[in-house]
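hey can u check if this looks right to u? its 637 residues, i copy pasted from the old doc so theres a chance i mangled smth
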Amino acid sequence: MEQKNFQFATLNEAVDAINLIRDEYKGKEFHDALIHIYTTGIPGERVQKLIDVIKKELPEFKCIGISEVTGEVVFPVEFVVLNIILSDETEFHVVQIDCAPGEELKAGKTVEDMLNQYQDVKGVEVYPSNHAIEVSGFLKIVSMGHEDIPFWGAMAVNRSGMVDGKAALGDSGFGIGDRIVYSGFSVVLYTGKNLEINADYILGWKAVGREMEYTVGKRTPVGEGALKTIDNMPAVDIYKKYLGVKWNENFVFNVCEFPLMVQRDGMDICFMPIYSENGELYFSGVLYSGEKLRLSYSTPEEILGASKKGSERMREFSPDAVLLSMCFNRIFYLGKDAHAEWDYFKRYNPEAANYHGSYEIFKYNKKGGVLNSAIVAVGLREGVKKDLKEYENDEEDDGYLHNEGIIPISYRISKFFNVMTDELVHLQNNLEEEVYIKTKEVEALSLHIIQSLAQTIDAKDKYTNGHSERVAKYAMEIARRAGYSQKQQEDIYVMGLLHDVGKIGIADAVINKPGRLTKEEFDAIKEHPVIGADILRKIREMPNLMIGARWHHEKYDGSGYPDGLKGNEIPIEARIIAVADAYDAMTSNRSYRNVLPQEVVRKEIEEGSGSQFDPLLAGIMVQIIDEDTRYNMREND
């Protein structure tokens, strides 16, 4: 495998150079060829002309890539990178999928079919365009069942914020392949029996301060995730409180050292706000209810140190080609030192490709997803390790490369802050260990009480013995497969146990009536979600507990009750419990019928996808059903 990097100051230079590139590769033997195209400050119709020239002059070369900025140009400079990879036996399978918001399931199915079609798939590179697309959901779909394959890439850069009251989308960012895609996915599958891929996630930030409570807002066309409040104040005010920074056009530059952070599946993930409105903060990526949110912080030397260690891990892998997806937030923070990050990798691979997107993509071994403030480093190698040349000019640096020995006061303060934080965290951990032990004891007692209450609820309805426990277990498994943390799974389990607590307020004669209910009786039954939510809302220590009780009868198309919520308006925990609840209802004995055949249950779940159920969660439930070949997941006779 061979990699070569070309950089051009203008698009015209790149177009004029295609003939020279054609002559350079004329007569050279290779199995397949891929050109990564990265552009800055160039409209899509002009980039399409470059693609057309490549297709004409280099027809055997496949194209993939993204725009970094266009439309209302943030960086008013044209720039084009063409990074070429020639393989000895690896194949590159490129597909582009037009996808409007809400069609992520269809797009994911296209890529999933390709994953099942080709043998020896070793990696998948993904370039989305249009911030309104839910990339997190897409990644969950395509990675399910393919957890041993790394997925990586970046979002095409859109203009952040709103223009004339409308989301800044449209032609402001695009994916590149055989054509320009303004809304959708440009994807390449890497296949090869002897292909090896090393995918690495590099951060450098760490959590500081205490954990903060928050509420999640509705997603918008500007970004996937939204925070409505943090610590009971408008989310945007958290930076005003700790840094004295109000939202304005320079907000990101003023808070770039302090991304918000959660730990998800043992992996630290940072989030930087891309827009604010009505006090809410909007993000690339998704924040889930119940995760532990903290401010994070780093120093330049720690960020550069993390990059350097990452480059050394990659060198140990001995790659033939290197692809680096890098966050703009690191550039904002490091300034003139930012080049050092990719220079570390180019010491042993000068032709490595480095590019920037609105955010990074890394999904591997059930970890990651949509990331921010990170570097995703991917190394490709065909066959055995090769001896790489020794580093050139490998001098020790201290993270302050451009200051000629004089360390700015901001760096000195940041170093002091970092050391003091480490010392405080050390003291805090000793106390937290004792608190943790006591907390676990209380949690065990609380769970025992909740399980007893759930059994009492089920005993009220003689036809649903064990229903709450089964729903809780099914919901927890769906959450696990959907990529939720252990803590989130446990929270959903408890919500599942108590989702029918409102039946306490319904007359026994109505609940246990053996025949068809009258309209008045059914209306009474429909009150149990509201009754349950009112009961659980009083438990102030667990404010989210009422979510499953109130909204587990809402439907994805908005036809459910009690509030007629639709799609993502329904809290994700309630959407999960709704699938689990419906499944158990069909796989339990009732007064009017026995357990339904498994194929009937499967069909009902499939047909309810997109109408009654969240399509992603319905797909997970169908997968669970297909794995249960002996039909063990049902009420025992």
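Residues 409-460 form the longest helix (52 residues).
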